[in-house]
């Protein structure tokens, strides 16, 4: 099997996600495939993903990964396996989960989220002929590790432009799930987009939890409370990069008759958020589904990806969704966003990755 390393910017518009809201804590690992004891040391016709905090049903990050797995099952005819996180789990739990998936013959095995990086580094060494994917992390590398990463700051810059143009109060809000470097990329791009569009605008920023507490990605009540505080502070557009917790921010903005901006998936189209969709102005999408699908396809084709695989704005690896007809009707907003997009791609705008 020949292994290739790809360092490129690739992407297409995100596939439509078939999602539903589910509870987040205390889930057990499940194997959706019929494969059992086949060796992971050979190319397998089964692919697996291990979900991040919040699990499948978060209407955001994890569900985007699931969409890629689902597409691979349909288009590539591969069997699939899924493993859910458990509340308060340790690195040892992640190691055990990934090891179990690899032993069952799944290839690739994909960890959804940077928190899987240390575990993947350990397990990948034990299964050198199995490809491991890690989404949103480049700190752990190896010949059989594919680092699937995105230019989140670019999509967030566009969200900042849209928020500044749509705001009537001149005050907007950003809510991050957990204060880690990845989420700071969202904050940095958003704040820069807002300020470049309206230098007099005010950005209220808040984080729900601090590491090692990652529950800020999983608790909608925290997102709702933070959004209410920003609404009380005059914000009329709120952008939450907080996984499942972001649904609480969307609920709060909708209840107040203000705008929310979604993240990762096109949240205007998520069934679990249908009652709030008229107040979801747009969403910053990351084509996690494509990244998952591409990695599975590369293994099936016998040319597994490894190294950094980057998805950027120029190929819609990150993008700003336009599903809401109200957003499409805001010609001044959409024109400003399209100009900003063109300028970023042309490298006339350099988007910061730290606030």
UniProtKB/TrEMBL annotation:
**Family of this protein:** Belongs to the BMP lipoprotein family.
Q: What is this protein called?
A: ABC transporter substrate-binding protein
| CC terms in the record's Gene Ontology section | plasma membrane
* Residue stretches making up the ABC transporter substrate-binding protein PnrA-like domain: 51-351
> Where does the record place it?
Cell membrane
This protein's UniProt keywords: Cell membrane, Lipoprotein, Membrane, Signal
Q: Which domain of life is it from?
A: Bacteria
Please name the InterPro entries in this protein's record.
BMP_lipoprotein, Peripla_BP_I, PnrA-like
Bilayer topology annotation: Lipid-anchor
Signal sequence span per UniProt? 1-23
Is Transit peptide among this UniProt entry's keywords? Answer: no
């Amino acid at each position: 099997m020949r292994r290739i390393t790809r360092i490129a910017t690739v992407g297409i518009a995100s596939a439509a996600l078939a999602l539903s809201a589910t509870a987040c804590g205390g889930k057990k690992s499940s194997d959706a495939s019929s494969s059992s004891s086949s060796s992971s040391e050979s190319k397998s016709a089964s692919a697996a993903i291990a979900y991040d905090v919040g699990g499948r049903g978060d209407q955001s990050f994890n569900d985007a990964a699931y969409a890629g797995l689902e597409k691979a099952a349909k288009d590539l005819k591969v069997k699939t396996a899924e493993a859910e996180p458990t509340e308060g789990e340790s690195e040892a739990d992640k190691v055990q989960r990934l090891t179990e998936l690899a032993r069952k013959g799944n290839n690739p095995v994909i960890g959804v989220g940077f928190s899987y990086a240390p575990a993947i580094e350990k397990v990948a060494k034990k299964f050198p002929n199995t490809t491991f994917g890690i989404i949103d992390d480049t700190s752990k590398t190896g010949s059989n590790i594919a680092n699937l990463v995105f230019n989140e700051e670019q999509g967030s810059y566009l969200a900042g432009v849209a928020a500044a143009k749509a705001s009537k109060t001149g005050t907007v809000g950003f809510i991050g799930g957990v204060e880690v470097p990845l989420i700071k990329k969202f904050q940095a791009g958003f704040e820069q987009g807002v300020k470049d569009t309206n230098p007099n605008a005010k950005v209220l920023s808040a984080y729900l939890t601090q590491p090692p507490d990652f529950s800020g990605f999983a608790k909608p009540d925290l997102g709702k409370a933070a959004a209410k505080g920003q609404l009380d502070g005059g914000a009329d557009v709120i952008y939450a990069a907080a996984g499942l917790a972001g649904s609480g921010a969307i609920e709060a903005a909708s209840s107040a008759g203000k705008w929310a901006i979604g993240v990762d998936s096109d949240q205007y189209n998520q069934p679990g958020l249908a009652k709030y969709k008229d107040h979801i102005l747009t969403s910053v999408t990351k084509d996690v589904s494509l990244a998952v699908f591409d990695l599975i396809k590369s293994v099936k084709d016998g040319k597994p990806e490894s190294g950094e695989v980057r998805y950027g704005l120029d190929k819609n690896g990150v993008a700003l969704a336009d599903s809401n007809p109200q957003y499409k009707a805001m010609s001044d907003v959409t024109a400003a966003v399209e100009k900003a997009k063109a300028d970023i791609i042309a490298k006339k705008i350099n988007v910061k990755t730290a606030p």
